[in-house]
Design a protein that fits this description.
By secondary structure, this protein is α/β, with parallel strands linked by helices. About 35% of the residues lie in helices and about 20% in strands. It contains 17 helices and 19 strands. Strands 6-3-7-8-9-10-11-16-15-14-12-13 form a twelve-stranded mixed beta sheet. Strands 2-1-5-4 form a four-stranded mixed beta sheet. The protein has a three-stranded mixed beta sheet with strand order 17-18-19, sandwiched between helices. Helix 13 (about 385-400) packs across helix 14 (about 430-445) and helix 14 (about 430-445) crosses helix 15 (about 445-455). The chain is globular, with a radius of gyration of 23 Å. InterPro entries: GH3 (IPR004993), GH3_C (IPR055378), GH3_M (IPR055377).
Length: about 500
């Protein structure tokens, strides 16, 4: 018997027994109250009179009435640029040691403040995730195994009074000392910035490790596992990591990658989804009988929900002034919402850019359904990334292929709009057949798309290309590896540049 592992598992069980899930409404009111109290003497808190808001009978409604909704550009232009210039007490008490450089799909130029309070909140959320493992019926010896965390470099950019890097690198560089004995690939390899060199070193060192769980974005985890298998001449990754049992995913939808990833395993793993962004650790999957994630309600983040409708959104994908905004208590299940957060990093009513759907209100569980700027609606299609992912799962089954990446745009051709798709697959598929099947699937899933197809949207085209071309584009124009994500929707100009690039590859 793995004595240490059994003790850890029992400790988790006891912790889970003596702690219970917080009452959502009460927990969120307490979080907002604490945020306002702590930030009331910052420049932002003074401008919006946080102290006075706390004296109102309903300080939550008062907060929503007085503080405007922000996107990154607004917060940066009005407030956060002062932090980058070295000022303190701007939107959160004190100064900044870290800025997370956004690795999302809409921009590579964002610098998100990461306070000490946020790092502490991320660590506490990680503990909540570990505590929830009691629900997944894992053997005792699992808790003695090492954890492979594939993220961006922990070798951060030194800017004098602060450091910059991706949130995965900042978090890994600030892990507790006791955790480092479990953490792989270790600080030395994690400091390597070049993706190919990092993966080569991991492949060389991999046989010496006893990995029990993996963490990382599916596309890059898959590339890493393939390199380890090829370098060490293995059949599956379980040949050297026989105790690998858990994969903690995040960043993008997992299902498109499941089929190809499971070819690299001798047996399926336990899959756990998480929602860690540059702005904070928002949610984690806490039980095995769902793929939804539970919002972390009592740890420095206040959530709000804007119904994702034309009435509430402008043409740039931003929330309009005066839009309907709901608390978690007021929000409903199975409605598409734009997510707003207020955090211990001084993000206030911040439009994170994701759309979510509450799948179980009692458990405060959500699914990510897409991006506000990656919602295809040029000629009335009103397609969400969630619907696109579902359609791609159908295409995988119908054509018996693996589809790991795709991108779509509405472009003009011969004076008319068409939807054109590039689909990254492991083998060739007849593009006309794929286009017809994809079109049917989207018509069945979305009545607005069906109407658009009968009027302004004349043609649907697909090109099926090797998925490696997506990664070569990412290496050229974004960067390879880490937490980098491929966009699902592009504007016409960007899409045509992407098309030129991939068609120029051999």
């Amino acid at each position: 018997m793995a004595v240490i592992g059994e003790l850890i598992r029992k400790a988790i069980d006891v912790y889970g027994f003596i702690t219970s899930e917080p009452d959502p409404a009460k927990a969120q009111r307490t979080v907002l109250q604490n945020l306002l109290e702590k930030a009331k003497w910052t420049a932002f808190g003074k401008k919006y009179q946080f102290g006075a808001l706390l004296d109102r009978p309903d300080f939550v409604k008062a907060f929503q009435q007085e503080v405007p909704v922000h996107d990154y550009d607004q917060l940066h232009a009005d407030w956060w640029h002062y932090l980058l210039e070295g000022h303190q007490n701007v939107t959160w008490p004190g100064g900044q040691s870290f800025f997370a450089l956004s690795s999302g799909t809409t921009s590579n130029s964002k610098a998100i403040p990461v306070t000490d309070d946020m790092l502490d909140a991320i660590r506490k959320s990680g503990i909540q995730q570990i505590m929830s493992l009691k629900n997944f019926d894992l053997p005792a010896d699992f808790f003695e195994k090492q954890i492979m965390m594939l993220g961006s470099s922990v070798n951060l950019i030194d800017q004098g009074d602060h450091q910059e890097g991706e949130i995965s690198g900042i978090s890994a560089g600030n892990i507790p000392a006791w955790f480092r004995m479990y953490y792989k690939p270790g600080i030395e390899i994690a400091s390597i910035k070049d993706w190919d060199e990092k993966v080569r070193r991991i492949a060389e060192e991999a046989p010496q490790w006893d990995i029990g769980s993996l963490t990382g974005i599916p596309s890059w985890v898959e590339m890493m596992l393939k390199e380890i298998i090829a370098h060490n001449r293995l059949n599956t990754i379980h040949d050297i990591w026989p105790n690998l049992q858990v994969y903690t995913t995040g960043g993008v939808a997992f299902e498109p990658y499941r089929k190809s990833l499971e070819k690299l395993f001798a047996r399926p793993l336990t899959y756990i989804d998480t929602y860690l962004t540059s702005e904070g650790y928002l949610a984690t999957q806490k039980r095995p009988d769902t793929s939804s994630m539970a919002l972390i309600l009592d740890n420095g983040i206040f959530f709000e929900f804007v119904p994702f409708t034309d009435d509430n959104m402008d043409e740039e994908g931003r929330v309009k002034p005066g839009a309907e905004v709901l608390t978690l208590e007021e929000a409903e299940e199975n409605v598409n919402y734009v997510l707003l957060i207020s955090t211990v990093s001084g993000a206030w009513r911040y439009m994170i850019g994701d759309t979510v759907m509450i799948t179980d209100k009692h458990r405060s569980e959500i699914k990510i359904t897409g991006r506000t700027k990656h919602f295809l609606n040029v000629v009335g299609e009103q397609l969400s990334v969630f619907q696109m992912n579902q359609a791609m799962e159908q295409m995988q089954q119908q054509f018996d292929v693996e589809i790991k990446e795709f991108v779509v745009a509405a472009i003009q051709k011969n004076g008319e709009y068409i939807n054109k798709w590039f689909i990254g697959s492991n083998r060739t598929v007849d593009p006309a057949q794929m286009a017809a099947s994809l079109d049917r699937a989207l018509c069945e899933a979305n009545k607005n798309y069906k109407v658009a197809r009968s009027k302004s949207l004349k043609v649907v085209e697909t090109e099926v290309i090797p998925v490696e071309k997506f990664y070569r584009w990412s290496e050229e124009y974004k960067k390879l590896g880490g937490q980098t994500k491929i966009p699902r929707v592009m504007k016409e100009e960007d899409f045509l540049a992407f098309e030129t690039f991939v068609n120029g590859l051999s």
